[in-house]
Amino acid sequence: MDHRTSGPLARDAMAYVLAGGRGSRLKELTDRRAKPAVYFGGKSRIIDFALSNAINSGIRRIGVATQYKAHSLIRHLQRGWNFLRPERNESFDILPASQRVSETQWYEGTADAVYQNSDIIESYGPEYMVILAGDHVYKMDYEVMLQRHVDSGADVTVGCLEVPRMEATGFGVMHVDETDRIVDFIEKPADPPGIPGNEANALASMGIYVFHTRALMEFLREDAETPGSSRDFGKDIIPRIVKGGKAVAHRFSESCVRSETETQSYWRDVGTIDAYWEASVDLTDVTPELDLYDHSWPIWTYAEISPPAKFVHDENGRRGSAVSSLVAGDCIISGSSLTRCLVSAGVRAHSYSTLERAVVLPRCTISRKARLKNVVIDRGVVIPEGLVVGEDPELDAARFRRSDRGVCLITQPMIDRLDA
């Protein structure tokens, strides 16, 4: 086994991002785009966090496997991530499910999404593979995890979150010994095992894995030849290594990147409307748990060339204003009042309208006298004049997608049905 420590291990690694999932719990927000392509933070997409972590960690070879409704995602990747150059030994490959292994087979699981592109991976000759989920929001230095993998001599190193034990029932949970070697892997257990010495918490899988490339390819070939396998890392590959090899847990707290203002490790699966809305509105806090203004660990994305945001009109009831809000470029807040809102590029908010705790995706129009509270508005929606959302729960539920916590998702087809 290679134990080189002369330079960053990331230089010899390839990041492989699994970005094919729909994210069905986001309901109509993923009707037209995969979950990794969902907008987040006013400028970014969810996938930008995993990709930025890779770049900031020093990884210069990246592959992204896409499948479900991938056009929006692929277009974003082509526009925003085309700066990696082959002549500098860098690469960026978009790998749609393209029936490369057989004419009938799409990606059958997360492991299969890597296996079907094994020839492309092997052509680059990376020493290590960092397998990433493309649908979580967090900042992490993968170099630290790579070093842990090499130092431990593991067959696989699994990124893990420490979570309260009974909150781990929806995750794959690692049962570890005192050295953090994984002795059992349990998918969504009813009674999760605690951490030795810290029984109140459990180690939940983040869907991040580090392998030596040669070993990974062997595991994938074995799995492909195993009848009945679901071709999945969490369900098949990792449990098999736990039983017959050496699997080690790496705790997120050891490699989480935090700025001076971030007091806790931040990781979010924004996979439900409530979680997405809450994480978005949280960014409007005076000192948010996630610092998007940390220049030492930038979140790269496709940066549109756009004019600055503009606020116009200054009279009672018709004042262009935003309090505790994030407003992206090319927005015109024209006599509209915003409070704790996250407003993406190109939004037009017209006179006498009010928005409170609203997450507005790009290119929306808020017509006059609309009153919107606790909403997520999909890209390109035109809110009609005088529409009121967030004041009558029964009426909201009849017209829009209303969550358990009272957040309304508004899409253009829902608006169109109002006039039908």
UniProtKB/TrEMBL annotation:
Highest taxon listed in the record's lineage: Bacteria
Biological process according to GO: glycogen biosynthetic process
Nucleotidyl transferase domain segment(s): 16-284
Gene3D superfamilies reported in the protein's UniProt record: Hexapeptide repeat proteins, Spore Coat Polysaccharide Biosynthesis Protein SpsA, Chain A
E.C. number(s) listed in UniProt: 2.7.7.27
Pathway, per record: Glycan biosynthesis; glycogen biosynthesis
Any GO molecular function: ATP binding
Site (Could play a key role in the communication between the regulatory and the substrate sites): Q67, W106
InterPro entries given in the database record: ADP-Glc_PPase, ADP_Glu_pyroP_CS, GlgC_bac, GlmU/GlgC-like_hexapep, NTP_transferase_dom, Nucleotide-diphossugar_trans, Trimer_LpxA-like_sf
Enzyme class name: transferase
UniProt subunit comment: Homotetramer.
Family: Belongs to the bacterial/plant glucose-1-phosphate adenylyltransferase family.
HAMAP family: GlgC
Protein name per the record: Glucose-1-phosphate adenylyltransferase
Originating organism: Pararhizobium mangrovi
Protein encoded by which gene: glgC
